[in-house]
Every structure is written in C-alpha cells, then in structure tokens.
Amino acid sequence: MKAVAYKKPLAISEAQVFSEVEVDTPIATGHDLLIEIKAISINPVDIKMRQRTSPDNETWKILGHDAVGVVKAIGDKVQNFKVDDEVFYAGTNQRQGSYAEYQLVDERIVGLKPQSISNAEAAALPLTSLTAYEMLFDRLKIQDTKQDKPIQDKPIILVIGAAGGVGSITVQLLKVLTEFTVIATASRSETKAWLQEIGADYIVDHSQPLEQQILDLNIGAPHYVFSINGTGRYTQAIANLIAPRGHFGLIDDPENFIINPFKIKSISVHWESMFTRSTFQTKDMTRQGDILNKISKLIDDQRIKTTLGQNLGTINVEHVIQAHTMIESGHSIGKIVLEGF
C-alpha cells in the first residue's frame, strides 16, 4: 500500500522531510479493523510527534490520527462493526497512522461516521471532539444535561484559545448540552466572528491582559476554566479569576507549570490527553467509541457543525508538507483535511 512516511525529525522546509513509500498492507487480528482511508485531517500532535522523533531512527514512520474510512476486514474479536461500515476515529499514538491507504485501528476507539456530512467534513472531527468531550464530561465532570436556568444561576466557564479545533467543539458542546455561560478567547477578527457564530456568550482578546477584561464583564467569577493553549502565559490570571473550589483543565504543555497559586482556593486541576485510554488499554476504552457515536448523532441532528477549515486535496507528500507548514505557522483557521489517494 502507499503511505506518506518519514524517518528523521527534519524541519518542514527541508527536502525529503516526507516521502511516498510502499509498505505491506497490515492484517486485522483481535479487536482490529482494517480501514481503507478516505480522508484524514492534520493535527498539531502530528507536528509534535515528527519533531520529537529520535534522530537515530531508521524505520519508516507513518503519522496521522484523524481519519474517515471503510471497514475492509475485521479481527476475530470484533463485535460492533462489519465489513463496509463507514467509520471515523482518532486512532492512537502507539501504532502507524492514517497517512496511508490502509490502517489498523482498535474497534473500541471507533465510531460510525455521520451520514449527513462528507468524508472530508467528518475527518475534521474525531481528535478534537474526543478531547473536548473528555475534558468537559470525564475530567471536569460537567453534567451533559441542558437545563433552563436564569442567567444569574448559570455556571460560567472560560475557554482559553477557543477558536481552534478543540475550542470550537468545546464551545458547541457547551451550548447544546449544558446551561453554561461561555466566555471564549480569541485575538483575530475572523476567529472572534467564528466564535460568535457558534454561540459563545462573551468573547475576550487573549492577546491582551485577560483578568481585567473578564472582570469588566461584571458577570462573576468563572467556576471552570479550560485552557487549550498558552497556559503558561495565563496561569496567574487564571488563578486570580477562577472561583473558589473551581475546576481548571488544560491540554497543552506549559513549561515550568506551577500549581501552587491554586491551593488557596482549593482548585482542582485536570489534565486531558485523548490518547490515555488507547495507550494504557484502560478498561473503559469503549468510552471513546461511545463518544464518537454521540458526536455523530449531534452532527446528523444538526446540533453541532464540522470545524473543517480547508481541504487541500489528495493525500500526498506535497499536501502533507503544505498542511504541516500551515499549522506550524500558527495562522490556520479550522481543521486542515486531505482526501483520497
């Protein structure tokens, strides 16, 4: 099968950073599904994994997490899928990825693709949806039951870096599944407009000091804070702003993260990694498949929308390099998708 692969952690500007290679098509065993890949999206974690590869590596590595495809074969322990099912998933960082014609993925972390949207639109969803859903409902323990409450009784959440892939899904899930008042941060006019479109109640500029902007809203202290990126820059402001006995979640990797400022308010701190369940083969691995099926239904019920930003075309070396370059620039909007070989 064809795949876009690499060996060394080269800069994206260097020649031969990726190559098109021929590798053996894998064989499904156990809980595996063999998926014929139809569309993928490129994620920041792909860039991090490429950059962190050992310079001594000599084997072909295939990146890629988000994918949409068709089941072509199943292992002997598969229970929930059959050949020809259309599926979507975010995979694992423990196996070869989705920049390939075929991929093996454990059925327990797979969902049925939404039927009302295209392969490209669906490919934009799995990793960000799982991260957002797990943070809100598994880590922060927010109740996914919408209630009608007066605005003064609604809990408040601050979502920092809300216009990206994870943030966009987070805001939508909060608005359709909870009664929360959502304060979202963004810095560019186009990202602020996007957050307004998907329902954020208040939008503040994270390129400016956050604390005074949120105090000026005069709506009270946020009970929850979800920081998606730039956490190191905002840690003290978050500690100052968050309500006593509040809950703080993060997904990025701030250097020298100091938790001490949160003690005085008895704040609980939660880290989320979408890969934990698959990496450690936790007993509740099937939770990810369940979440993806919930996301699929929310899409088909037209309660949330895809975060597809740009479809660059076929899955090839040129387009993979283009996508990595765009993400590394820090100025891409929405998810970047590649489709077909």
Automatic annotation (TrEMBL):
The keyword Transmembrane helix does not apply. SMART domains: PKS_ER. Keywords: Metal-binding, Oxidoreductase, Zinc. GO terms for molecular function: oxidoreductase activity; zinc ion binding. The keyword Zinc applies. Residues 11-338 form the Enoyl reductase (ER) domain. Belongs to the zinc-containing alcohol dehydrogenase family. Quinone oxidoreductase subfamily. This is Zinc-type alcohol dehydrogenase-like protein.
